[in-house]
Design a protein that fits this description.
Blueprint lengths: L5 E5 L3 E6 L8 H7 L11 H13 L4 H12 L33 H10 L3 H5 L12 H13 L1 H4 L3 H31 L3 H22 L8 H9 L4 H14 L25 H22 L6 H16 L13 H12 L2
Helix pairs in contact: 2-3, 3-6, 6-8, 8-9, 8-14, 9-12, 9-14, 10-11, 12-13
Bound molecules: 2-acetamido-2-deoxy-beta-D-glucopyranose (2 copies).
Length: 345
């Protein structure tokens, strides 16, 4: 979620209400309520407010959607652990570590149950395994998604409904992929090749399924980002430079060497169709291929070889010119339904 900074000049006359966001164009519900706050004298009853919000947002009153939003309010939109960090889901911020550098005694289940009770735990015992921040029950969020899908027949004409549906499906799948990644690491540490291959395949398939999902909504595409950058150019050189800038800003940034990723890599960590297929998938795939080979050959995982290979792929991608769609394709509701059936039923 973005940082929101209310700016209010209110000495004699109210002049304006403004917000200054670092990350924008997501979580519209936050900005909707935020911009009302200056006009309220009493505490807002968010649960009631949300009922009319979903009506205003989708143009129809719908009981299932109201229930879905009530769940979101108690889960995704209720982060109370005081941790304000960037999204570190493994797909968009793939760990730059060797799996032998963290001990298997801190296996997935232990980490998850322990972290729920002691959020600071990981920082103390294992600085090397990055943990995506999780402050809500993913099962509850999936229930909310199910209610969104139930409401789909009535609401699928609404662009805002489809946006929210795609976003919630995306997040549910990404959280699932985090678990699958940890399963893969677990298999590796147990030297279980077939387990590793099974979870790797699932992780990569999730990336491609999220790619297809995001491609169905204009708001989740890489293409418009690149095209708007190029359109600012007056000359061919500028065009080349602006495209490189736009590609670099959403991926590696600039201070990388042949074997060290930039300190700011994945700072933007966008879930955009185009990036998943051409950027996040090759990265994970190169990593897991080496991981599997290291088990077969009974030698340690060569982190530096992966970095060299990956960074060179990435630098080529940054200077690339291939085009990405600027218009959505596919039926968001149908895609979300089929992914729900595939992964959550
Ligand atoms: C948010 O979470 C806190 C801590 O778990 C809980 O006390 C509170 O009731 C929750 N609020 C909502 C709206 O669910
Ligand atoms: C793998 O290598 C280790 C030493 O590095 C050795 O102890 C072990 O027996 C080897 N395992 C196989 C299956 O070759």
């Amino acid at each position: 979620m973005a940082n929101v900074l209310p700016v209010l000049w209110c000495t004699i006359h109210l002049v304006g209400v403004g917000m200054c966001m670092e990350g924008i164009e997501h979580n519209p519900v936050v900005y909707e309520l935020m911009s009302e706050m200056a006009f309220r004298s009493q505490k807002v009853e968010v649960e009631d407010w949300l009922k009319s919000y979903s009506y205003r947002r989708y143009g129809q009153s719908n009981v299932e959607i109201q229930k879905a939003w009530a769940i979101l309010y108690h889960t995704i939109y209720n982060c109370t652990d005081g941790i304000a960090d960037h999204n570190k889901d493994y797909i968009v911020e793939f760990p730059d570590i060797s799996p032998s550098s963290f001990s298997s005694q801190y296996s997935k289940r232990k980490i998850i149950s322990h972290v729920r009770k002691h959020p600071r735990f990981l920082g103390e015992v294992s600085a090397s395994l990055p943990q995506p921040h999780l402050w809500y029950s993913t099962e509850e969020a999936v229930k909310s998604l199910e209610l969104f899908l139930k409401a789909g027949n009535g609401l699928s004409e609404s662009l805002t409904y489809r946006y929210d549906l795609v976003d919630l499906t995306r997040q549910s799948l990404s959280k699932l992929a985090n678990k699958v990644y940890l399963d893969a690491m677990d298999s590796y540490q147990k030297r279980d090749s077939s387990g590793l291959n099974f979870h790797t395949k699932k992780f990569l398939e999730l990336i491609m399924d999220i790619e297809t999902l995001l491609a169905s909504d204009d708001n989740f595409l890489l293409g418009p980002w690149l095209e708007t950058a190029k359109n600012l150019a007056m000359t061919e050189d500028e065009r080349k430079q602006y495209e490189w800038n736009a590609r670099t800003q959403v991926t590696m940034w600039y201070d990388d060497t042949k074997t060290e990723q930039s300190k700011l890599h994945d700072y933007a960590n966008k879930f955009w169709s185009g990036l998943l297929k051409s950027y996040y998938h090759p990265r994970a795939s190169k990593y897991f291929t080496r991981l599997s080979r290291s088990l077969q050959e009974n030698r340690s995982f060569q982190l530096e070889e992966w970095r060299r290979d990956w960074i060179s792929y990435c630098n080529e991608w940054q200077s690339g010119k291939e085009l990405y769609p600027v218009k959505a394709t596919g039926d968001a509701l149908a895609i979300s339904r089929s992914l729900f059936a595939k992964y959550f039923r």
